[in-house]
């Protein structure tokens, strides 16, 4: 039986490694073939095929719900209902809309929308909206959050921006009640931590600031401030323990068996907490796991601990196969499996403090391969932080927050409990801040497969029981993590990465011993691409410091992420065409016209128009020459700056040209293009951006001259081996079934 369960579990989980989904006709063939093989000895193969077929069919349904390509970028009037708890941050309201209908077009079942300077929305309201719709697409870089995978896992078929709207029906139902409760919680005096309490009680994390998220990430405690399996399981365990304790003390009615009552009460409590939190995917997963564990405790303890874990895995993926696209699925099951592995077979009783400490370092070490595979930051302070933060939140803050919420109708009582819970949270954040300042999160370099396998093997050896021979050999196997293998450019060559930062620019130029970042990506309000994309990508590529950060000019789409880069990476020198306009913290120096330097056989030369007005004209232009192959980075220069550059008689010919100003019509004059005479041009812009970049006439001008265009929307991050004269590599070429090329 267990072999068949393993086969089914593997079939359901194999969805995550498929580069493309099988054709629909093959899927409809696989499912009946799998069912026909069940009665025979090959039933494990049948179950594997059934699991794979069901997962692929479910994924096909989700992909089929995406916005039709002909509607991408179109503005439509539609009607729908707001679901979930809308997030309002930095003047932007983000929310989900379901049951959306338009007059002449079929729309996806679920939309994720943003309304800039929009009104306060409530869950359950019905609106008529004018929305500019987009097909699901995210930024694709060497490391970073996979937005497209997340949207698919949430079964969101389109995103969009609201232009205007009118309310058709007020809020009603359970979601409206949750929204009113959220507003009540946010206005309670919780010593500045009302947003964190709303996150614990309702699963609404919009009240947590970016500084809060950074602190939680640095200390490995993100799981404590969002409703996860841990919180739901804690409530279930408390209710189960309450009944068990009453029975042990003799206060439980003898006519009512305590074990079925304890299991029932625990599951009902977990389900109620899940409904209060909106019953999102992580909570649903936790409820399924708790149900399986309680059923095992009630009837099937003789089967051991691995069978219920395997059953929970299968149940979760049968209900939602796309859960494998979320990091939380792998981390939650990985954590439970590790704890079962370490504690299920131990001999004798351990002191509670030893059990708790062993659990923390086991999770920190054992989950390391998963964190590496999922490209997640690794917290060096996590074991120590969780040692006190987990019981602090679990046994003090959460019970007080839930009890205070329940007693809010009682004047003074509920508010008092929430005030106390908020004070405990504030003290916890102060303690975590001390740890984060000493040991911030570490973003490791991406490891090749062979190095990841060695590290995983080393972790497995170190987790073996004490006294096992060769266990100490696990330590040297972790060395690739500390000294990752790198493919550095050859002498006289450079590796160039145009990162995918949307409507902005960030280009890494790396020689054998040096690194230069040309522009640092955009920042829009609290959405900083420097922190979210540029820094993780640099770390993943093995860049630990920057010799120069050259910011072409001070516009936010080019220099907005600079402070985040400087805070996370050592930067020896900052240059800019608008040094005096940039924040003083950057200590930027002015770009010097005609400056030139040589790194590892690669020549760098700058140019800046001395008579330029502030803004785009002042962009510092950079030319990079490696083994006779040239790259020209132009920032946002306009036609006037182009004419000035041509008038100086500089040698402008380059094999690669970064298209000025994202393809705006005010740049890329015919004379400039002919003077540079590139073989290929690089375009960095946002998909369906509001500026209409690139202008069709500019695109036509390049193509008429036979110049190949590389657009980050189509390629993702783009790598060029300057000096090797090779074809570039786009990160979107890495095939995964949910990503459009």
Give an account of the 3D structure.
It is found in: Cell membrane. It holds the Pfam family Competence. This is DNA internalization-related competence protein ComEC/Rec2. One of its GO terms (biological process) is establishment of competence for transformation. The strands form four sheets. Strands 13-12-11-8-7-6-21-22 form an eight-stranded mixed β-sheet. The chain has a seven-stranded mixed β-sheet with strand order 14-15-16-17-18-19-20. It contains 26 helices and 22 strands. The radius of gyration is 28 Å and the shape is globular. About 45% of the residues lie in helices and about 15% in strands. About 40% of the residues are buried. It has about 750 residues and is an alpha/beta fold. Helix 1 packs parallel to helix 11 (about 305-320), helix 5 packs antiparallel against helix 6 and helix 8 (about 230-250) packs parallel to helix 10. It folds into five domains: about 1-65, no CATH class; about 70-170, OB fold (Dihydrolipoamide Acetyltransferase, E2P) (Beta Barrel); about 220-360, no CATH class; about 450-480, no CATH class; about 495-735, Metallo-beta-lactamase, Chain A (4-Layer Sandwich).
């Amino acid at each position: 039986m267990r072999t068949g369960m393993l086969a089914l579990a593997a079939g359901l989980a194999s969805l995550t490694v498929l580069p493309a989904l099988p054709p629909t006709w093959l899927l409809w063939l696989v499912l009946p073939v799998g069912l026909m093989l069940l009665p025979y000895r090959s039933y494990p193969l049948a179950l594997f095929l059934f699991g794979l077929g069901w997962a692929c069919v479910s994924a096909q349904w989700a992909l089929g719900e995406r916005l039709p390509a002909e509607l991408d970028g179109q503005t439509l009037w539609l009607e729908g209902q707001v679901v979930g708890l809308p997030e309002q941050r930095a003047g932007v309201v983000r929310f989900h809309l379901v049951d959306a209908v338009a007059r002449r077009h079929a729309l996806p079942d679920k939309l994720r929308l943003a309304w800039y300077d929009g009104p306060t929305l409530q869950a359950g309201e019905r609106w008529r909206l004018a929305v500019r719709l987009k097909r699901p697409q995210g930024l694709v870089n060497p490391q970073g959050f996979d937005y497209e995978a997340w949207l698919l896992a949430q079964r969101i078929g389109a995103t969009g921006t609201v232009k205007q709207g009118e309310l058709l029906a007020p809020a009603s139902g359970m979601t409206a009640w949750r929204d009113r409760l959220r507003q009540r919680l946010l206005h309670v005096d919780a010593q500045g931590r009302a947003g964190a309490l709303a996150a614990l009680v309702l699963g609404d994390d919009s009240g947590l600031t970016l500084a809060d998220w950074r602190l939680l990430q640095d200390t490995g405690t993100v799981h404590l401030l969002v409703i996860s399996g841990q919180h739901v399981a804690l409530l279930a365990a408390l209710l189960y323990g309450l009944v068990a304790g009453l029975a042990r003390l003799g206060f439980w009615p003898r006519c009512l068996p305590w074990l079925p009552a304890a299991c029932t009460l625990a599951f009902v409590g977990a389900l109620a907490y899940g409904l209060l939190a909106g019953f999102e995917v992580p909570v649903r997963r936790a409820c399924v796991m708790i149900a399986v564990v309680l059923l095992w405790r009630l009837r099937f303890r003789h089967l051991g601990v691995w069978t219920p874990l395997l059953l929970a895995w299968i149940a979760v993926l049968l209900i939602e196969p796309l859960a494998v696209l979320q990091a939380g699925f792998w981390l939650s099951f990985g954590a439970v499996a590790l704890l079962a592995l370490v504690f299920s077979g131990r001999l004798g009783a351990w002191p509670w403090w030893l059990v708790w400490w062993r659990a923390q370092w086991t999770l920190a070490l054992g989950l390391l391969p998963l964190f590496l595979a999922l490209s997640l930051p690794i917290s060096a302070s996590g074991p120590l932080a969780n040692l006190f933060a987990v019981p602090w939140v679990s046994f003090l803050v959460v019970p007080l927050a839930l009890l205070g919420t329940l007693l809010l109708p009682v004047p003074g009582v509920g508010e008092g409990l929430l005030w106390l819970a908020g004070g405990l949270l504030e003290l916890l954040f102060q303690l975590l801040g001390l740890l984060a300042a000493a040991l911030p999160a570490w973003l490791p370099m991406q490891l090749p497969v062979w190095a990841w396998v060695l590290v995983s093997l080393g972790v497995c050896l170190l987790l073996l029981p004490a006294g096992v021979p060769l266990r100490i050999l696990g330590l040297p196997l972790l060395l690739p993590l500390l000294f990752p293998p790198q493919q550095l450019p050859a002498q006289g060559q450079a590796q160039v990465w145009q990162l995918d930062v949307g409507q902005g620019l960030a280009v890494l130029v790396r020689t054998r011993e040096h690194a230069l970042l040309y522009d640092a990506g955009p920042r829009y309000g609290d959405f900083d691409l420097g922190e979210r994309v540029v820094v993780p990508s640099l770390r993943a590529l093995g860049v630990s410091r920057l010799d120069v950060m050259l910011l072409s000019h001070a516009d936010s789409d080019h220099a907005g992420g600079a402070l985040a880069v400087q805070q996370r990476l050592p930067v020896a020198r900052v240059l800019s065409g608008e040094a005096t306009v940039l924040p003083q913290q950057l200590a930027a120096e002015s770009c010097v016209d005609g400056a030139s330097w040589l790194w590892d056989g690669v020549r760098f030369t700058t140019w800046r128009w001395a008579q330029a007005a502030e803004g785009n004209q002042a962009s510092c232009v950079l030319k990079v020459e490696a083994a006779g192959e040239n790259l020209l980075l132009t920032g946002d220069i306009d036609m006037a700056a182009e004419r000035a550059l041509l008038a100086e008689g500089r040698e402008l010919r380059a094999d690669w040209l970064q298209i000025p100003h994202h393809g705006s019509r005010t740049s890329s004059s015919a004379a400039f293009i002919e003077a540079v005479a590139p073989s290929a041009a690089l375009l960095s812009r946002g998909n369906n951006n509001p500026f209409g970049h690139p202008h069709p006439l500019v695109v036509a001008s390049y193509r008429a001259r036979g110049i190949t265009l590389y657009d980050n929307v189509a390629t993702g991050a783009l790598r060029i081996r300057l000096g090797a004269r090779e074809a570039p590599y786009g990160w979107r070429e890495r095939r995964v079934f949910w990503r459009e090329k």
